[in-house]
């Protein structure tokens, strides 16, 4: 079925507007004109040329022409080509009604107002004012898949008397499946024929085409698409596929060939240069109906397994935030929500409950005061570990400390204890642990995973997986995760009774070697985002400082880092000791 109650289903192409997210709307006028020409020849009903914005909200130094879509530029691009009507989008709260000229001074036909649900009631009055200027109007319900049934019916009531020509459902996170389309559209379809209903799909779950076919069958009046699926993240419904499908049903209306020629000339190369399409993070955001920045930031941290990320996104989904909240993500990470989701190991036949909820029996921490009064050496993974390996070995030979290492050590040293708290690094490096080393594994790595990768004996490191607590030890349990395993091992050394704690290879995340490496080896898990790296450095500095204060408070020496480090106040060069 390809028709609706009042005619053939329409297509609105949003290539320039939605695709502009990939290059800050810096499309050349000639390119935009050729896109418009191709779409007009293809029978596409509306060509969305961009956003309308002003310098009050957007800098012209940062954004290209089509974030502003000024009338003179639209005329220059579209003049002399007859075909698709011109559409333009505005974001509620990011423009003034005075930014839009009366219709008789503009060649734009349709203005679409994008609105989040918490602003919908206020936005309707603005839509009425746009309508009064003489334009066709459309209300875009962003994040519609997160609306409750009550909210969808309430939206229909709000729109009913608004005078809007179109009401659009936007699958903002690409989270909808075909069997959900009919129920989702039902409240708005009741507004026909007074209000035409549109559908804007995203392709996070590769469902854009299937969902669009289902929406057409349900009776929507208009579908959004973009050439080659161009758009932010996973992209959109490809215009050319939509045209091919509809051409088979209505051959005298639609023709995909002009758009295919345009793809061949421009879009194949462009996709290679700036990239869009199916990606893991957009699949996850679609699955959990949340902003893609949540998945992207969790993946970019390179600290969590997919199971951890899956559970975190499920938590975010249940909180149902509007858009992206940095505060919510920080809360989830800092309070250890990811770790506390995990079903904890069973020890001596008893289930170990998450430490955020219940203290362990003191006897379960088996290594309390095991090395009382001893000197301990923590081996980090910074480039200085390799550069100073001979001096570090001399230090070890002279003082015979209890040595702790973590993650990958490349057989440079065989520590007494080799530790893992990060699941990804455990999987990558546990095979390389020396048989002479005792394996220490953080409590949030499950027994099932451990036994999948090693059959060795190990001891459990007990700590609370949160950043929101200061360093403390209660009954052998470290009260925070100390942000990185090397810093956490300083806490383990304290639990084991260390009198003096030294560290080597703990260079800090502001120190890189001549090749730009943070570690003495190249790791695929290494962070690339400079803000994440600096944040990690700050957390480490904080916890090293707290551990240092803890030692001094208990009448012991503070922390000494033996190799060059950006944690400068704790640095005392190794040559002072050998």
Structural account:
The protein has 578 residues and is α/β, with parallel strands linked by helices. It has three domains: 275 residues, Aldolase class I (TIM Barrel, Alpha-Beta Barrel); 51 residues; 227 residues, sialyltransferase cstii, chain A (Alpha-Beta Complex). 37% of the residues lie in helices and 15% in strands. The protein is built from 20 helices and 21 strands. The strands form five sheets. Strands 3-4-5-6-7-8-9-10 form an eight-stranded parallel beta barrel, surrounded by four helices. Strands 17-16-15-14-13-20-21 form a seven-stranded parallel beta sheet, sandwiched between helices. Helix 20 links the parallel strand 20 and strand 21. The chain is elongated. The N terminus is likely disordered.
Give a brief rundown of this model:
This protein has 578 residues and is α/β, with parallel strands linked by helices. Helix content is 37%, strand content 15%.
